[in-house]
Amino acid sequence: MKVSYYPGCSLDGTAREYGNSFREVASSLTIELEELPDWTCCGASSAHVTDDGLAFSLAARNLMIADRLGKDLVVPCAACYRRLKQAEKGLIERRPVEGSPGKYPNKIHVKHSADFIWEACGEKAIRGKVKRPLEGLKPVCYYGCLTVRPPKVTGAQNPEDPQALDGIMKSLGANVKNWSYKTDCCGGNLILTRPELAKKLVRQLFDMALEAGANCVVVSCPMCHSNLDTRQKEILRENGDRYDLPIYYFTELMGLAFDERSIGKWLSGHLTDARTLLRQQGLL
Q1: Hey, what domains does the chain have and what are their CATH numbers?
Q2: Which residues have CB under 8 Å from 155's CB, separation 6+?
Q3: Which of 24, 41, 97, 148 has the fewest Cβ atoms surrounding its Cβ within 10 A?
Q4: 98: closest CA among 60, 68, 132?
Q5: Which of 39, 25, 32, 44 is CA-nearest to residue 223?
Q6: What is the mean pLDDT of the chain?
């Protein structure tokens, strides 16, 4: 199976462990990723809050490149995915792109990484690769807000209760816990402007995860991972609340279950201890 791949800025930088684990897991599942040639920033978190035209053009340019390749475009970063889906909607509605030779052909689909893996591979293929079932792990799956909302842009069929991450984790043998906060905002975009509000949102997610009986959180968004992973020490220092909840990218746990040797390197990039729980469960 061949698809185009848009890593975005985060997966080559602050979320390198997500990018590396996604590429290795894709290879294990015989998915060939063709990185988008000459891709550029999608404008998330910068252009889209200052210049709507620039934000649209940045994302649309990448879509036009992907369309010329003729393969569906897989996007792991939730923020990039949201910007590309917004641009896709604009192109389909015939919004012009500066420098574009004509209208957008609309021959490809833009897929978020978790949705793509679940839809393209499914339970049987994922289970078939498992060498180390994730028994003892009790995750809640946290989708965040960018991959599902608004549905008129993302096309999410079940925006309040998405299932791709849940399905993947269950296929790996994890005891997935149900909770109603899987698409609540973590406040990642407020951490510089409204830090107290952002930390309140984070604490609520942690409290609800523990109430659901979880011992870890699984994510598919670099911004969510960063916010949930880095705020735990701050909360402990400021409020005395200790959570010690590991935050894993879903691809890291897939790699662990598939017995990929790079798992230790990926986990070394986490700020909240991500290894002790795995050792306690005999998984690392």
Answers
A1: 2-113 (3.40.50), 131-280 (3.40.50.11810)
A2: 85
A3: 41
A4: 60
A5: 44
A6: 93
The token pair that represents 79 in the structure block: 């923020």
Q: Rounded CA gap, 169 and 209, in Å?
A: 16
Q: Which residues contact 58 (CB under 8 A, 6 or more apart)?
A: 40, 41, 42, 43, 47, 83
DSSP state of 160: T
**Residue 46, SS3?**
coil
Distance from first CA to last CA of the chain, Å, rounded? Answer: 31
| pTM for this predicted structure | 0.95
Strand ranges in the chain using DSSP code E only, listed in sequence order: 2-5, 32-35, 73-75, 110-112, 139-142, 216-219, 247-249
pLDDT digits (tens, 9 = 90+) for 47-59: 666 788 898 999 9
Using only the alpha carbons of the chain, give its radius of gyration: 19
